[in-house]
Amino acid sequence: MRDDLSDFEYERRFFCHAFPADLDDGDAPILIVQSYYVHQDNFALRVRLQAHNVRLAMDDQTQAIATLQRHRDAFTDASVTVKGPAIGGTRYEAERDIDPDVAVELVLRGGSPIVKNRYSAWLGEDGWDIDVFGGSNAPLIVAEAERRGPVTDLVIPDFCVTEITDDVRFSNDGLAERPYALWKEQFEYELLTTGPHFLEGFGTNRREKH
């Protein structure tokens, strides 16, 4: 749980075509089911549940609620989070722990849910989270680097195709409101015609094989 002095997140996020297989050490990733009750103008109210011993298949199309019901007893961590708009890789995010049983009931009763497996790895100078989405957001894969301050002079692994830090479509609340499956072809066309891009206002970007 964050304290009042650290209620900001600093991260940069990237679209990936595929999950880097060498980062899968065989241990089960974190299973995350989260639901958004407010997701308008980049403001959000989120309830999140986490389980540490459940893996979704990479091509799993299972929806979030079905996953939550199937693995209900496995969720041991839960939180409620208030998020402000994301501006240049910085977002206000006040997160507080809540009882997992209460969180399950909240998610079952409302909001717009998503489901994903989260893998974590230390690459070069930073810790990275790689999220593999299920349900109507499959087969989306997003990698993010998060720090306690602005993410500058970042070493970007080669499996990161293009930066999506400021693309609200890829925010988790954006994906809850309008799942990736609805605009996947449109985005792939954009990427094909305009090519990848990386934000230039955060020092020097360095590309590196992991």
Automatic annotation (TrEMBL):
**Taxonomic placement:** Bacteria, Bacillati, Actinomycetota, Actinomycetes, Bifidobacteriales
InterPro entries attached here? CYTH-like_dom_sf, CYTH_domain, NeuTTM/CthTTM-like
CYTH domain: residues covered: 7-177
Q: What is this protein called?
A: CYTH domain-containing protein
This chain's source organism reads Bifidobacterium crudilactis
